[in-house]
Design brief:
Elements lengths: L1 H14 L2 E6 L4 H4 L4 E3 L1 H9 L5 E5 L2 H10 L4 E4 L14 H10 L4 E5 L4 H4 L4 E3 L4 H7 L4 E5 L2 H10 L4 E4 L12 H10 L4 E4 L5 H4 L4 E2 L2 H10 L4 E5 L2 H10 L4 E4 L14 H9 L4 E2 L4 H17 L1
Parallel strand pairs: 1-2, 1-3, 3-4, 5-6, 5-7, 7-8, 9-10, 9-11, 11-12
Antiparallel strand pairs: 4-13
Helix pairs in contact: 1-13, 3-4, 4-14, 11-12
Bound molecules: 1,3-dihydroxyacetonephosphate and iron/sulfur cluster.
């Protein structure tokens, strides 16, 4: 049954000249029919040069918006219109403008998990894989980092020469990982290395052997000579790693580490999107697109 739908999707995407991008948190059956899978940075950069006229994003809304900002000539589809990222919707432009006015000498660094609207007033965008490098490179030594205070705290620790202001935003899924749960997992698996996403709380991150993006965690585990790993990010990463490296052992830090937004996309949604019966076309006012593009261009230039 799954194979039949996958074959139908592969046929349709060829006929309709569609490139399917799938974030690393997507279900395995979706990743199998994608042209490219990866973390949010890789998907954003990849989308610019794909030859197809249409890009179908299997991920959350800000990822599809990023593609539209970078490739306005393409038709950009979000496979499931309810797939949003709660962190991206935590802070709006009006609220951040007030903070900006209060701290005019701070450079506003926005995690890519933000709306296109908010990006219009930010100076530079970062992803989890590029944040440290970019914050080191930008000229200013005063950084207002939004919206994720956990990622912000991690970056601030790696870039001690600069002053950071953080706001209280963050990811509700990664917030489920507590230091207590991690210590229990470490006691149960004393030989395992701890690999975490920087969206985790600082009390969790401080125990990590490696901190990185979704792709960074996967690359590290695949290349490592270690055989056991505790994985501190959405459960799909431990699942994919177990599938890719059957001789190694991967323990999710907690079984409830499921992002309901990412997991709202199904294979049938992708099929419906290609058939024109489901999904949403992302459209954007040109003035807003150009204003939002500036901070993404800065990310690509510095990253
Ligand atoms: P990555 O940049 O690691 O793909 O992270 C995106 C995300 O939403 C993680 O929760
Ligand atoms: Fe957003 Fe967190 Fe889900 Fe990533 S895991 S998409 S940050 S809610």
């Amino acid at each position: 049954m799954i194979k039949d739908i996958q074959n139908e999707i592969l046929k349709l995407k060829k006929e309709k000249d569609v490139c399917i991008l799938a974030h690393s948190y997507m279900a395995q059956e979706i990743k199998e029919i994608a042209d490219f899978t990866g973390d949010s940075y890789a998907l954003a950069v990849k989308s610019v040069n794909v030859p197809q006229k249409t890009v179908l994003m299997c991920g959350v809304r800000f990822m599809a918006e990023t593609v539209k900002i970078l490739a306005p000539e393409k038709t950009v589809l979000l496979s499931n219109p309810v797939a949003g990222c709660p962190m991206a919707e935590q802070m709006d432009k009006e609220a951040i403008q007030i903070v900006k006015d209060k701290y005019p000498d701070y450079t506003v660094v926005a995690y890519i998990n933000t709306t296109a609207d908010l990006k219009t007033i930010c100076d530079v965008c970062v992803t989890s894989s590029s944040a440290v490098k970019i914050c080191k490179k930008i000229e200013s030594d005063k950084i207002l980092f939004i919206p994720d205070c956990n990622l912000g705290a991690y970056v601030a620790g790696q870039v001690p020469e600069k002053e950071f202001k953080l706001l209280q935003g963050g990811c509700p899924t990664h917030a489920k990982i507590s230091e207590k749960k991690l210590l229990e997992a470490m006691e149960k698996h004393p030989n395992a290395q701890v690999l975490v996403h920087p969206e985790c709380q600082p009390d969790v991150v401080k125990h990590a052997d490696f901190v990185g993006s979704t792709s960074g965690i996967m690359d590290y585990a695949k290349e490592s000579s270690h055989n056991e790993f505790i994985i501190g990010t959405e459960i799909s990463i431990a699942e994919e790693l177990q599938y890719a490296c059957p001789d190694k052992k991967f323990y999710p830090m907690s079984m409830d580490l499921i992002c309901p937004n990412m997991k709202s996309t199904t294979l049938m949604d992708v099929y419906g999107c290609l058939m024109g019966t489901f999904g949403e076309e992302i459209t954007m006012d040109e003035e807003k697109r150009l204003a939002a593009k500036k901070c993404i261009d800065e990310m690509i230039r510095l990253g």
